[in-house]
Amino acid sequence: MPQAIRPVKHDASTYVDACADPARIRRAVLQHTVRATRVVIGLILVVLGAVLSLPFVPGPGLLLVFGGLTVLSAEFEWARRWRTYLHDQFRRLTRRPPHGG
């Protein structure tokens, strides 16, 4: 169970967490930075992929959208569902007809 955070007011009117260990604060900041970086990279890939998917624009648009959703799926359930849906559609469209027919 997490400890209660009790801010202590100093003369400079800044709040400091009296219970927090500096290593714990660094870990929390690093964790949030990694999450924010994943979200930004995923969104950039999805937007860039959407632009490259437009007609008459060369480039691997759908591949970038899928890559962006893969990065975002580490953080968001909706991205995981979209990634699974796109993966299933890709498999359905690229399925080979049965042999001997």
Describe this entry's structure for a reader.
With 101 residues, this protein is mainly alpha-helical. It has one domain (7-93). 59% of the residues lie in helices and 6% in strands. The chain is built from three helices and two strands, in the order E-E-H-H-H. It has helices spanning 22-52, 61-72, 77-93; strands at residues 7-9, 15-17. It has a two-stranded antiparallel sheet with strand order 1-2. A hairpin with a 5-residue loop joins strand 1 and strand 2 (15-17). Helix 1 runs antiparallel to helix 2. Mean pLDDT is 80; it is low at 12-16.
Question: What are the SSEs and their pairings?
Answer:
Elements (H helix, E strand, L loop, with lengths): L6 E3 L5 E3 L4 H31 L8 H12 L4 H17 L8
Antiparallel strand pairs: 1-2
Helix pairs in contact: 1-2, 2-3
> Oligomerization state of this entry?
single chain
* Rounded average pLDDT: 80
Largest sheet: 2 strands, antiparallel
> What is the rounded Rg?
23 Å
SS-derived structural category: mainly alpha
The SSE string, one letter per element, is: EEHHH
Distance between the termini: 63 Å
Number of strands: 2
Structure at a glance:
This protein is mainly alpha-helical and 101 residues long.
Name a few traits of the molecule:
101 residues; mainly alpha; two-stranded antiparallel ribbon; 3 helices; 2 strands; 59% helix; 6% strand
